[in-house]
Design brief:
Outer membrane efflux proteins (OEP), 75% helix, single chain
Length: 225
């Protein structure tokens, strides 16, 4: 009974070890992924356009607020006290400088709405930036997962190639000594050739995934590691 329990424990540990080796979850780093998200928000050109749009929206609010000064207009009139034309009647009350102010009632009524509309435009830009950052965060995470997946698959293909190469060397050695059949030797060569092609394809997929991730974060992965 004790031996049976020991066997089950050893079997469980073996299966757990195999499952751990067949999972890419251990290769995922949430801290590094967060660093990639921060880099994407800082470096990606479209993200920077939102900052400029926010600045423009704030300037429009300031402009709308300062336009209150345009509501009041200063006017003046100069009437000379002495005139060379004897036919012009003299009025001492209206002679000299006269000044006054003019108010635009329509502009006064419209001004609060204009300022409010400018504030709403700023809020729209900010919401657009928030939405974009949510999308870019999701995109970075997806591309990071794909990058880890392709890296994991590449490592497995490299191991398969190494195993196929070792098997081919062993069978070739035995075949040359007459201890192995030509059929098995031919199968080993075919397996090795397939392993080489699979590794090349995995390398290509890995490099493409790396490029796609670097595109969204705006810099090389090596600089952030």
């Amino acid at each position: 009974m004790i031996l049976k329990n020991i066997f089950f424990v050893l079997f469980f540990l073996f299966v757990h070890s195999c499952l751990a080796q067949e999972s890419m979850m251990s290769d995922i780093s949430p801290e590094f992924m967060e660093k990639l998200v921060v880099a994407a928000k800082s470096n990606y050109p479209k993200a920077k356009t939102f900052d400029h749009s926010i600045k423009i929206a704030k300037m429009n609010i300031q402009k709308a607020q300062l336009d209150w000064l345009n509501i009041v207009s200063f006017i003046y009139l100069y009437s000379p006290t002495n005139t060379a034309d004897p036919g012009v009647a003299r009025n001492s009350i209206l002679s000299g400088f006269q000044a006054g102010f003019s108010l635009s009632i329509g502009t006064i009524l419209q001004k609060p709405g204009i300022v409010k509309a400018s504030r709403e435009e700023l809020e729209i830009v900010r919401l657009g930036k928030d939405e974009y950052f949510l999308n870019i965060e999701s995109t970075v995470q997806q591309r990071y997962y794909l990058y880890i997946q392709q890296q994991y698959l590449l490592n497995w293909k490299a191991k398969d190639l190494q195993n196929a190469e070792n098997t081919l060397k062993d069978i070739k050695y035995k075949f040359e000594k007459g201890e192995e059949s030509f059929e098995n030797y031919n199968k080993a060569q075919s397996t090795y050739s397939s392993a080489v092609q699979a590794k090349i394809q995995a390398e290509s997929a890995f490099l493409i995934a790396k490029c796609n991730l670097e595109e969204i974060i705006g810099e090389k992965l090596e600089r952030l590691q």
